[in-house]
Structure formats: C-alpha cells, structure tokens
Amino acid sequence: MDLKEFQKSTFELLKKADAKQKGEHDTDTTVVHLLEELGEMAHQLFNEKIGRDKLDKENLAEEISDCMMLLSQLASNFDIDIEKSIKKKLKVLKQRFNV
What we know:
Blueprint: H1 3-21, H2 27-49, H3 57-77, H4 82-97
C-alpha cells in the first residue's frame, strides 16, 4: 500500500467509525487521540528500558500504526498530501546533510 492509498483508507475508515460511534476525528480530537497513542508507545519503550517489563513488539507495532493513522487523519483534515509532503521533506534533508 502506498501513502496515498494509506491516507485515503485511513480517512474512509475513521469516517465510517465516527458515523457508527457518533464521534468525530476533528483536529482537536485527533491530536488528543494521537497524544494518547504516543503515550502508550512511550510506556512500552520506557518499561522495557527500566526493566519493569519486556518489550511487547506486537503491541509496539500496533501503537506505531495507530500513530501513523492519526497523523494521516490530521493531514487529511488540512488537505495535506502526506506522500507529497514526505518526498519534499526528504529532498530538503538530503540537501541539508549532503547525502
């Protein structure tokens, strides 16, 4: 799946989920949800770092996927083409670091 397809699929899925649950992934809700998911990801990594719990890679992968989907939704809320934006940013970074 390419990024355009990912962004479109995420938007459609969340639109349907919102309709079913009478919710809305507007900007505020999406950012709060993203912060929640980032916290869950950080919790996974921190627990492993301090030896409290072993890293659950399956859960970590799920949290990363949640974050990516919410970032995709946020971009869609502002009509930002993620694929185009990432390509542009990569070009800037390659020039900046001469790689």
